[in-house]
Specification:
By secondary structure, the chain is mainly beta. It contains no helices and 14 strands.
């Protein structure tokens, strides 16, 4: 099966062609970009590789490779994005994500590592409330540490955002409200 998608973003035009396996899993995306005078500036084919459980294990583009690792229960525990050989200067890993899960397969902790920045995510679930809390600790590179807590309803809608400074002092609280029409 094949599908196409065109995007006009200011002066750039992007055409994407999607190719699927018989299992309806994405096999490849061919990306072609044109500049403002309609000349091709990029052609990239992104390939997808799956394991026997149909879990995505590799996503490969022209400049990078992204690999995925799962535990025995099928929880995603690591994503590693790196530049292909010969590209980049400060090592090939440009982004890494790791995750830990509880016995109910809920994500409870994650780290993202990008060049000079590390972000730590702590997820908590309150059994008696319908709110999930996500605490984000961002080192911001060197000495700029900040912490953000986000609370969500059970349905995934964001309720509240609290921002703390490096001393742990609450600096700002934002409440989120929603209006629904019938």
């Amino acid at each position: 099966m094949q599908a196409s998608f065109s995007l006009h973003n200011g002066d750039t035009i992007e055409i994407r062609k999607y190719q699927y396996f018989e299992t309806n899993k994405l096999e490849s995306i061919e990306v072609t970009r044109f500049d403002e005078i309609n000349e091709k500036v990029l052609v990239d084919t992104i390939l997808f590789t799956y394991n026997k459980k149909y879990e995505l294990i590799k996503y490969e583009g022209i400049e990078f490779i992204e690999t995925y690792l799962y535990d025995q229960q099928g929880n995603l525990i690591e994503i590693n994005k790196r530049l292909k050989e010969g590209l980049g200067g400060c090592g090939n890993t440009i982004h890494k994500w790791t995750g830990k899960y509880d016995s109910n397969h809920n994500l409870i902790e994650a780290f993202t590592y990008s060049m000079m920045n590390t972000t730590h995510y702590l997820y908590s679930f309150n059994e008696t409330e319908t709110v999930q809390t996500v605490e984000i600790i961002d080192d911001g590179g060197m000495y700029n540490v900040s912490r953000t807590k986000k609370k969500y309803f059970e349905n995934g809608l964001l309720v509240k955002i609290e921002n703390f400074n490096s001393k742990g002092e609450l600096k700002r609280t934002d409440m989120v409200t929603y209006e629904f029409e019938n």
